[in-house]
Amino acid sequence: MSKNVILIRSRSIDPSIHKVAKALSNNGYNVKVLLWDRTGKRNIQNINGYIVIHCGIKAPHDKITASFFLPLWWLYEFFFLIIEPAKIIHACDLDTLLPAIIIKLIKRVKLCYSIYDFYADNLPIAFTFIRKAVAFLEKFGIGLCDAVFIVDPTRYEQIKGSSIKRLAVLYNSPPDYFERKDSIALKTKANSDLILFYAGVIHRSRGLIEILKALRDMDGVKLIVAGLGPDVKIFENLPKILRNKVEYIGFISYEEVIRRTLEADVILALYDPKIPNNRYASPNKLFEAMMCAKPIIVNRETSAAKMIRKEGCGLIVPYGDINAIKNAIKLMKDSYDLRLLLGRNGRIAYKNRYSWRLMIKKLIHVYDQIN
């Protein structure tokens, strides 16, 4: 039991938890992963040396109505953790933390906590009292954890004031597919059109409407969109002028995301700063673009923009500025040399400062400290 670890994540479609599980498994830990599969599927899988258990409580993704299903999920998580032996429990985000804290106190095990999204800052600014209550709850829970992981140093501002025993920054970087000698890394091609790629939540707060408006009168550009979310109808009911410029491919596997990133010319990652959490956005897409040596377009109101200025690996636009988005895309389209330069800068930054290999070292160092 001394090296038994249980990881918990309420988003089964998020690849981040699998990177952590594989890293721990490869470094001598016995790993089980509990995921909430909101499509209703229940199964157990053995993946890359660790076991994945899917909780099949059917519920929506990325909608406020999902909160009504949380008590059922918490009960499932609680009884799972009661039954399963573990020396370390690793919860991810507030919707997994509360049952994990109770089990920590009952069974006297160690508790790690990864913050991908600080929940209070996902709520509208107008919900002042609720936001303060949720923030207090999460910060109080952080004080009961043995180690906390954040995905960007700027996110410390969100949890400042918590009683933190150990804190580590694990950037949400992908493993290094670029140098692999298999079909993923080799499947690159010359594009006649400029290929823009977005993979993520399909939601209006991701600048998708503004991107479509920017593309309306542009030629020689194609947008490929992958993902699920509450606003998929945006792409199911495209106006005629955009149907040959936009391809919506739905949900795809993480390896397919990497393949599409390698095939693309430019990656897009825009986040509405009216949602407080978006200001701290340091998304998978940024590090995937870096790893794949692809330039990225982000908006200036995010922490990702600060990193892009530092590393010189993309272009920055104001959120919602359709002309600025259009000009950035045109600049990328007209200058292959610029795309190459920005992509190379990102690749160098990934290898030297943000690679998953470097993140694994930090992860294992913390685990070995608390184990």
Can you walk me through this structure?
The protein has 371 residues and is of the alpha/beta class. The chain has 2 domains: 186 residues, Rossmann fold; 172 residues, Glycogen Phosphorylase B (Rossmann fold). Strands 3-4-2-1-5-6-7-8 form an 8-stranded mixed sheet, with helices on both faces. Strands 11-10-9-12-13-14 form a 6-stranded parallel sheet, sandwiched between helices. α8 links the parallel β10 and β11.
Which secondary structure elements does this structure contain, and how are they paired or packed?
Blueprint: E1 4-9, H1 16-26, E2 30-36, E3 44-47, E4 50-55, H2 70-83, E5 88-92, H3 94-107, E6 110-115, H4 128-142, E7 147-150, H5 156-159, E8 167-169, H6 183-186, E9 194-199, H7 208-215, E10 221-226, H8 233-236, E11 246-248, H9 254-263, E12 266-269, H10 284-291, E13 296-299, H11 303-311, E14 314-317, H12 322-334, H13 336-354, H14 356-370
Parallel strand pairs: 1-2, 1-5, 2-4, 5-6, 6-7, 7-8, 9-10, 9-12, 10-11, 12-13, 13-14
Antiparallel strand pairs: 3-4
Short description:
With 371 residues, the protein is an alpha/beta fold. The chain has helices spanning 16-26, 70-83, 94-107, 128-142, 156-159, 183-186, 208-215, 233-236, 254-263, 284-291, 303-311, 322-334, 336-354, 356-370, and strands at residues 4-9, 30-36, 44-47, 50-55, 88-92, 110-115, 147-150, 167-169, 194-199, 221-226, 246-248, 266-269, 296-299, 314-317. The chain folds into two domains: 4-173 and 355-370, Rossmann fold, CATH 3.40.50; 183-354, Glycogen Phosphorylase B (Rossmann fold, 3-Layer(aba) Sandwich), CATH 3.40.50.
